[in-house]
Amino acid sequence: MHQPALNAIRVIIRSNKRWDLFFAIAGFLALLVGMLTFIALFVQMAYTGWERLNPEFFANFPSRRAAQAGILSAWVGSLLVMLVTAITAVPLGIAAGTYLEEYAPRNLVTDIIEINVTNLAGVPSIVYGLLALGVFVYAFGFGQSVLSAGLTLALLILPVVIVATREAIRSIPQHIREGAYGLGATRWQVTRDHILPYSTPGIMTGVIIGMSRAIGETAPIITIGALTFIAFLPPSPIEPSFPWLNFEWLWSGFTVMPIQMFNWTSRPEEAFQQNAAAAGFILVLMTLSMNGLAIWIRYRLRKNIKW
């Protein structure tokens, strides 16, 4: 190759390396800004509310006296609402995404469904609250209950789970399907034994994102009538005798951590601001714990796939 051509290639390579370095630095700075912002807010909440982080804060009901107020009804309500949300949204989202990617025919109707699912992922949460108020609370008669709240948040994260499921399935190489079909497997066997196991780590990422968004939502929960002051707990889902399970808690009134924080931050007393900071710190820890569990499950699934 002539020397001028080699020099031109070297110039192009050096230019591309400079652009690679530029984008690497820009990405690192963007990540650093996000991480520092999160750490600063997290540390500030911990510092402000540290005096309230004691066992009584977890075991007490809300009170008009800031020193005696706790988050018992709020964190229990959040866990129950998230349970309904996960049980509803995760199976439906995975099933819908799998159908759209593996089974649905490529026609105009499918295209319209795909466009609407993608657009629904960006709809403001208050719209879901208004929809749930008309459908779940009044039309279906579920009332202002844990069930209504869980279904509302399930609708909110359902498009996220569907889109993540489709993207995870789409990333599976085509030769895996062709090999399975070549050995005589049916479409369901290919989906069950190959597509879903290999795409599960990617699906879990979408579930993590969706559940993290749901646990911090306030607008749709307020819209359907969550209580801002509650001094009782829903009935326990587990009974000491047969049939062992109790579903009365689904129809109980409730509150959640974001609403409890909103209630405290709306009060001018400094002590209530400390309570709100402590509750925010705990809410972040709950979110991180939930994400950590999902990441651990994803890691175990990937490890099993490698074997």
Give an account of the 3D structure.
With 307 residues, the protein is mostly helical. It folds into two domains: 1-52; 54-306, MetI-like (MetI-like fold). The protein is 74% helix and 0% strand. It has eleven helices and no strands. The longest helix has 47 residues, at 3-49. The chain is globular. The model has no long low-confidence stretch (mean pLDDT 84).
Tally of contiguous helical segments: 11
Instruction: Indicate the CATH architecture of the largest domain.
Output: Orthogonal Bundle
Helix content: over 70%
What is the CATH topology descriptor of the largest domain? Answer: MetI-like fold
**How many beta strands in the DSSP annotation?**
0
What amount of the residues lies in strands? Answer: under 5%
- Summarize the main sheet: none
**Tally of separate domains:** 2
SSE arrangement, N to C: HHHHHHHHHHH
Task: List the keywords.
single chain; 307 residues; mainly alpha; MetI-like fold; 2 domains; globular
Secondary structure layout:
Blueprint lengths: L2 H47 L5 H5 L12 H32 L4 H13 L4 H15 L6 H25 L3 H9 L4 H29 L3 H5 L33 H9 L4 H37 L1
Give the gist of this structure.
The protein is mainly α and 307 residues long. The protein has 2 domains: 1-52; 54-306, MetI-like (MetI-like fold). It contains 11 helices and no strands.
